């Protein structure tokens, strides 16, 4: 990998097309043309290979314990006790399957999801999908901005709006520190987040939630009361994020997998095991936060101050839940873990933004510029809301951002399901019938609950907004037209047939063929010759083989 001096001399905007002449030619398989310090997986049947695959799943799982998850979990427990635990269970199982598909797409084809979208869809569709993906990255960054601002407020009594401004610099400092070793940085963040998880698990013992109610909440779906559907959508959006699909399919390219049928199957299996372990930890953390919040706020002997906190619970007030374990240190330690969670999640968001831009537009930006752009777009609404409405309104903005992620999820999920179900793209590694049924069922459930919430919320807004009859009619027409466009866009992605056939990369292949209906433009959609500068820009582990673990 290039040294720091060499990296600093690179242009800030890099187009892969301009560098095609530096690759090994259009006939070179994509994986073999990666000129970075990869972890090389040997062609041998050994469980020790699992250690070489560990990394991408844990990096992706950080997004499942970010400030957005903390906020939605706290409000779910405070308002509905254990009734929404089933959403966390379904979302975690769905996340495991979906993230495994994203990893499989990258392993089998050697290209990540955004690159497949660019090769497959027309320019107009591709541009719209890119805009939606960028909006998802920004929506994911808003909870990180506000969570970090809350943490600074708890630690140093800095006003929330000032903390929002400071977050623009804090993440840039962490990106600067990565040159000294991203593994050390991630390890520190993991320790801090694990610390708060331990505190919630211990508090779980003190709060003693009713076990039968917890089990019922996990396995009996119900949505009762005002706002339950909206909060359920927020939980889904906070758990299954669209930008994570782009991120995971790209991160797996940091491993040089044996290009045999056995090697690909082993890589897919080990990536699923790693993802299952990482997401299980995230699942337990989310369950413990909801259970603690529900048990404490549902208690009959709360003080008036705690009752007030529970009625309007957000990240800035949540530290009182840990008083039994940490005493007066509860707010400080919670703030440190919240700060660590927000910053680590922002780093993954920056990487996802890199891959989204490179994949859809064939353009790559240096990480600090990419982070500054995304962070600026996230800071603006966060700053306005925190100044006008204070910490309570900022907490509500986190819920809204999570809902946006849920509404945008189909525009990343549907292409992923279409590509991984295509034999012309995946060969024998396509989804099984059972996986196809489950994943399309998950996608249908998300679309149905999103549509139901949009319709019911819009109807309530029309009936109770005090507008004149004429204004209500026109508002209704434009509102339902927007819903029709949303549904039509999803149906277009679902029923559009794949028109590009990308054969899986196997050992001995001398080409990566992309077959289109128009052979005259076949070369335009080909990604087989792209240099992997998007991968080399990441601070990946140093090159080693699984034999080093013996």
UniProtKB/TrEMBL annotation:
Q: Where is this region: Disordered?
A: 1-29, 523-550
Gene Ontology cellular-component terms listed: plasma membrane
Ranges annotated as spanning the membrane: 50-65, 85-107, 127-152, 158-177, 189-207, 227-254, 275-296, 333-352, 372-391, 397-417, 437-461, 473-495
Signal peptide residues on this chain, from the entry's feature table: none
Regarding the membrane, this protein is recorded as: Multi-pass membrane protein
Q: Keyword Membrane, does the record have it?
A: yes
Q: GO annotations under biological process?
A: iron ion transmembrane transport
Its protein name is: Metal transporter
